[in-house]
Amino acid sequence: MRKWNDDPYTKKARAEDYEARSVYKLEEIDKREGVMRGARNILDLGAAPGSWTQYCLRNIKSANIWAIDLSPLNVTDERLKFVQASIYDFDIPKWVGDLRMDVVLSDMAPKTTGIHEADVAGSLELALKAFQAASSCLKENGNFVVKVFMGDGFEGYRDFVKTRFSQVRLLRPDSTRKHSREIFLIGKGFLPNSKATF
Ligand SMILES: C[S@@+](CC[C@H](N)C(=O)[O-])C[C@H]1O[C@@H](n2cnc3c(N)ncnc32)[C@H](O)[C@@H]1O
């Protein structure tokens, strides 16, 4: 049985039958930045237990969702393809073939150790991997949303993402827990032919 604490976002998630409170981060990002408008294909990295996938299925009516996580996803739908794998071992370009994504989402997070430097480094590594995946399969003008823990290396990462998108924005949603170091970086308008390499 799932455990719920008194956090208002957690209660709301339960009331609205979402798998996790993190859905309200994506909802705020989408409402403020319009990243999902008209999307037909969405790649959701670090999708388990599945609240971001649920958000996409409920709100982006025509979209197909491609989801990956180390853990099982608690969501099934005919518009959803899920693979249980690590982003480090899985060949995303081969999986999606010639299809281009309108949006790539990454809410991936490492297992936290409590050692700040190690957790920041783990998060940055996942964010780089997400960027690499986005670069391999995003449509021209597509959008990228990625969670990163603030710390050493963050500015370099942001500057690198800037070379491949028309616009990069940072957002810390209201539902982010007070002590969390996470922030979301939003790349809008993918530039496939930018000279930057990865
Ligand atoms: C904060 S949770 C994602 C919550 C999800 N967005 C939701 O709304 O339900 C972070 C996820 O990242 C996944 N993750 C961490 N490292 C990963 C990796 N190497 N490959 C794939 N998924 C990974 C974890 O298994 C975990 O489920």
Features:
single chain, 198 residues, alpha/beta, Rossmann fold, 7-stranded mixed β-sheet, 6 helices, 32% helix, globular, binds S-adenosylmethionine
Tell me about this structure.
By secondary structure, the protein is of the alpha/beta class. It has a single domain, classed as Vaccinia Virus protein VP39 (Rossmann fold), CATH 3.40.50. Helices cover 32% and strands 25% of the residues. It contains six helices and seven strands, in the order ααβαββαβαβαββ. It has helices at 8-15, 23-33, 51-59, 92-96, 116-137, 154-162; strands at 41-45, 64-69, 80-84, 101-106, 138-149, 165-171, 182-190. α5 links the parallel β4 (101-106) and β5 (138-149). The longest helix is centred in the middle third of the chain and has 22 residues, at 116-137. The radius of gyration is 16 Å and the shape is globular. The termini are far apart. Bound molecules: S-adenosylmethionine. S-adenosylmethionine (SAM) is lined by residues 19-20, 22-23, 46-52, 68-71, 86-88, 107-109, 126.
In terms of per-residue confidence, which ranges show pLDDT below 50 for 5 or more consecutive residues? none
Main CATH class: Alpha Beta
Counted up, domains total: 1
Strand line-up of the largest beta sheet? 3-2-1-4-5-7-6
**How many strand units?**
7
Q: Which class of secondary structure composition applies to the elements?
A: alpha/beta
Short description:
The chain is an alpha/beta fold. The protein is built from six helices and seven strands.
Topology summary:
Layout: H1 8-15, H2 23-33, E1 41-45, H3 51-59, E2 64-69, E3 80-84, H4 92-96, E4 101-106, H5 116-137, E5 138-149, H6 154-162, E6 165-171, E7 182-190
Parallel strand pairs: 1-2, 1-4, 2-3, 4-5
Antiparallel strand pairs: 5-7, 6-7
The protein binds S-adenosylmethionine (SAM).
